[in-house]
Design a protein that fits this description.
Length: 273
């Protein structure tokens, strides 16, 4: 394997939250609120104990990997009350809430009020800002957090999310230039410090945010003592040159999520030989 092929950019890592037990991106529920249709990244039926046995039946039946729970719920909010209209099992045939025996105790005047539910509904709209192939681990431009107590809406908070820096994920030309930069840096350092050789792993992450939440620096750390520089001069030079390159070329994405800046960490490998 050539030196060029040994130098690589490891996948970005960012741990947020896991909304479901599945490690695959999941389809949300559907909800009508204020006369508009939205996707909802909350599963109110998971709190309904009467639905447990039927829910397990849907899970046990064959279903797509994007719908491990085996059904999709369709909801609506009217006069600040959350109602379940119907569910669509993975088989595709609508099952109306009023016809589900397990939910009969919640049915009044032909409608099933979700009085079992006391939690927060996450209702999303706009463009998807961030996606991770895991449960509901994705964010949208507009997110409404609707606090519900015994099925009744008690408060609503809107959050605006955005992509600050797109980054170079999927940009083959940018990654080719990065690999060349790392190869040149490794050769230069090895020539000046011949005792320093092998792979050096470095984590890179935006830091020091200023106007318009733009970063003014990149933090460079070494996650492994085994793969870190032994020479302080080499360490300082890697930190300075790598930080400058990542920042100048905006290699990493940067997000503003739920009122906070989210800066993913990237890991690069530099081979000194």
């Amino acid at each position: 394997m050539s030196t060029m092929n040994k130098i690589f950019l490891i996948i970005l890592t960012w741990i947020t939250f896991l909304s479901t037990a599945s490690a695959t991106g999941q389809e949300g529920e559907r909800i009508i609120w204020k006369g508009e249709k939205y996707e909802m990244l909350t599963l109110p039926l998971f709190q309904c104990h009467e639905f447990d046995s039927l829910g397990r039946k849907f899970e046990d039946e064959w279903c797509s990997t994007a719908l491990w729970r085996g059904y999709q719920g369709h909801w609506y909010i009217e006069n600040d009350m959350l109602y379940l209209d119907y569910i669509v099992p993975d088989s595709g045939e609508n099952l109306y809430a009023k016809d589900i025996p397990a939910l009969r105790k919640y049915c009044k005047n032909g409608r099933v009020a979700a009085t079992w539910f006391s939690d927060t509904l996450r209702v999303v709209s706009g463009k998807q800002v961030f996606y991770e192939h895991m449960g509901f681990n994705r964010y949208y431009e507009h997110e409404d957090f609707i606090v519900v107590k015994q099925g009744k809406v008690v408060s609503v908070k809107r959050v605006e999310n955005k992509l600050i820096i797109k980054g170079k994920e999927g940009d083959s030309d940018a990654h080719k230039k990065l690999r060349q930069f790392l190869a040149d840096l490794g050769k230069q350092l090895h020539q000046r410090y011949p005792d320093e050789s092998g792979h050096i792993l470095a984590d890179v992450k935006y830091c020091n945010f200023g106007l318009m939440m733009m970063p003014s620096d990149v933090e460079v750390t070494f996650p492994s003592d085994e793969n870190a520089p032994h020479n302080k001069a080499v360490e300082r030079e890697i930190k300075e040159k790598l930080a400058n390159y990542i920042l100048a070329n905006q290699m990493l994405p940067l997000y503003y999520i739920n009122g906070k800046i989210k800066a993913p960490t990237g890991t690069v490998s530099i081979r000194l030989e």
